[in-house]
Structure formats: C-alpha cells, structure tokens
Design brief:
The chain has 2 domains: 124 residues, HAD superfamily/HAD-like (Rossmann fold); 63 residues, no CATH class. By secondary structure, the protein is α/β, with parallel strands linked by helices.
Length: 205
C-alpha cells in the first residue's frame, strides 16, 4: 500500500533520550534517580503535564523542594538537557526518504510544554515534518476526545485516515488508531520497521 501520510510518535520512536539525563548524569545521579522515581512514575502528574495543566517550572519547583537543588540552577540544567536530546539519525534519514517519495509526514506526541518551547524549533524537525502536534498545546492526550489530536493532524495533512500510517511505540495507541480506521505499526526498533516496510512494498535504500 502507498501511504499518503505517515505520523510518528516522538518519544520512543524519534528520540530515546530522557529529560534531565544529559545534565544531571553522572555527577548528580541521586537527583536524577529521585526524579525518575517520584516524577515520571507519577502517572497522574505526568498526564497533567502532558495536557498542559502543569508547567515545567512547576515540576522543577517540586524537584527543588524535595532535593535541595536550587530551582534557578535546576531550570538551566533542564533546558540544557532538552537542547542536548538526540534525535535518532536513522529515523531522520528515513523521514528524508519519505519526503523524496512525496509522502507527507507528521509528529503527534503526548509531550510537555518544553517540547513546543524548545524541541519543535530544531532545524531538522522544522525542515522535515509537515505538521507537529503536541498534546500540551491542546490539553488532550492522543486517545482523548476519540483521537482528536490525530484528527487535527490529518486535517492539516489533508489526508483521509485510511490512507495514513501511524508509527508509535505504544501498543494501546496503535490499537486505538487502527480502530479509528488507520494503518499502524507498533515500533520496537528501526530494523523491524525497515523489514516491515520493505515487506509492505515501501522500500528503503
């Protein structure tokens, strides 16, 4: 099948780095571990953050009060860690190849306010992706509102969902998108994606 548009998740597909990782490790490993255990394991807090109900400064205030790290310093470390997050080179190259094939590509991500403030301005993303949708900007996660974020992306792409492909590392999200009428691939690693696409006649160089 020839897809008119391909939608990518960000975290876990296009990027595998973690917030605070590149600025707190290895010197402040105890702070990093506290964040992982008390912030990112708190699903309600993270969902509120990804829905835009909480700002990244609020998160850093919680961390600062619990760990004793000065918030001004923590804010700078956080921004630095986000700026240094690596986007998967193989996936970027794959996206370049999609553009050459005339396929529209987008990002739909359950993500935080900092993604829109910093990450979306990165030249490699602005150059490649036709549409970037971040949950924090709309107050909705991907499966909220019967998939409203996907509808917004598809409308911007001028693509019917049946002619689109979602690549996401969440099985529940790919299952959800399939029920919406779209095609999907549950992402685990690039090699499996490449093999699957070649099998489905979308060949990579």
């Amino acid at each position: 099948m020839k897809y008119e548009a391909i939608i990518f998740d960000f975290d876990g597909v296009l990027c595998h780095d973690r917030f605070y990782e590149k600025s707190l490790l290895p010197e402040n490993e105890h702070v990093y571990r506290w964040i992982q255990s008390n912030i990112f394991s708190n699903h309600q807090l993270i969902h509120d953050w990804m829905r835009g109900k909480i700002k990244w400064q609020d998160i850093n205030k919680i961390i600062s009060e619990a760990t004793g790290v000065n918030q001004t310093i923590l804010d700078k470390l956080f921004i630095d860690s986000v700026q240094k997050m690596n986007i998967d080179h193989q996936m970027l190259q794959f996206c370049h190849e999609l553009k050459k094939l005339g396929i529209k590509i987008a990002i739909v991500t359950d993500n935080m306010d900092i993604f829109s403030e910093i990450t979306t301005s990165r030249p490699e993303l602005k150059k490649i992706f036709d549409v970037i949708i971040n949950s924090a900007d709309f107050g909705l996660l991907k499966k909220d509102g019967n998939g409203k974020l996907f509808e917004i992306a598809l409308k911007a792409l001028k693509c019917d969902i049946k002619n689109s492909l979602l690549i996401d590392d969440s099985k529940s999200t790919t299952d959800f998108y399939k029920k919406m009428g779209g095609n999907c691939f549950y992402y685990q690693d690039f090699q499996r994606l490449k093999t699957w696409l070649n099998t489905n006649s979308l060949h990579l160089n």
